[in-house]
Amino acid sequence: MPGLASTTIPLRPRLAAWWREPRLNGWALASLAGLLFLRRPDALLTPQLWAEDGSVFLLGQDAKGFAALFEPYMGYLHTLPRLTAWAAHALLDAAWWPAFYNAVAFAVWLGVLARLFSSRLDLPHRPWLAAGVLLAVQTPEILLNLTNAQWAGALLLLQQSLLARPQGTAQRAGDLVLVGLFGLTGPFIIPLLPLFAWRWWRDRHADNLAPLLLAGLCAAIQGACLHHAAITFEHQHAPLDTAAAVVALARRLVVWPLLGPTAARDLPAIIQAGFGAAAFGFLVWRTVRASAHRSTRLVLLGAGVLLMSAGFIRMRPDTWTGDDLAFSDRYFFHARVILLWLLAFELDAVGRTTVLISRLALIAAFFTHLPVYRFPAPPDFRWRERCEPIRRGAAADIPILPAGWTLHYPGRPASDPR
Fold this sequence. Notes:
Elements: H1 2-7, H2 11-20, H3 26-39, H4 42-45, H5 52-64, H6 79-91, H7 97-115, H8 126-135, H9 149-160, H10 169-183, H11 189-202, H12 206-229, H13 242-259, H14 261-266, H15 269-288, H16 294-315, H17 333-345, H18 352-369, H19 383-386, H20 388-392, E1 396-400, E2 405-409
Antiparallel strand pairs: 1-2
């Protein structure tokens, strides 16, 4: 049958053709979902609540219902977790709440990966960019839990600032929903607002103005919440130790991601600082020079600086007396992803040396952390058995993740029908 023979293409050529011109299709989406699942399979196989999943969002929904949506926590709104908790309470038995929470978080992370393949994004080496999200070194703190889904949401906002103008009503509405949802989920819309302004300045059209205005409104709301809460910490008022700051940033952003935890712990501070400064200088030089995708590189570099600056002000790593590479790791995640993205941009550079350096750095980032790519399963606190008091509205202390965290459920009055 000639027709059948002509359509039966061997797998390897098909994969090679897809890699050259990657697009999102069924098997690509399934592959991304599978790889994401393999990082933390327990999140879907034995789902459990994580920290504020229970102590803030579950309890807030249980006590106030939909009104909890408008209640800030840590100085800002958490729209996605609040809506998720509301939907879980309305639709599901308590035994299924952790599964629903984690499924929402999984969908957000998968959305980040899938949107990298959007035709509205002019990006090279999209499979490498997806790998940057999947493989960027991190602790289990932010991956696939509802509390920290806002960190994936910040990447969606960053992607939004790079998108070409929407074509059609559905895309316009989708853009605005995404900006509104994640603009009011976490504080990241504040440091990322200049990127939306730059997008509109570069292409002054109503399709770019509307997201900018919405992003500005969200930033104003979150900023007002932060100002009203006035949450500050003692370490934020300490004098800046410039040398310690350089070493801390170099260790967390460059040395650990590219050379591994042993080098990050054992190399002398001066070597780590020099290595970090050289890497940052290389990326800045490659970004500002005239080249393909220069505008996108500038946006990514700017996003990394803005997000890392906000995290630095919040945590002040120059004041730490030690660094176990786990404390406050989430504040460095975005910058590490952007580091890998900018290195991936260099894979088609003209200079052979630049290409070699970038390839070696990406290979090192992959193989150095391959043994810990899959996070070990945490203790199973048997939520399905322990949630019975919540069904009855009885007070109970229920262990949840991370280990050592307890959900102190206060119970409900007997007259409360929930």
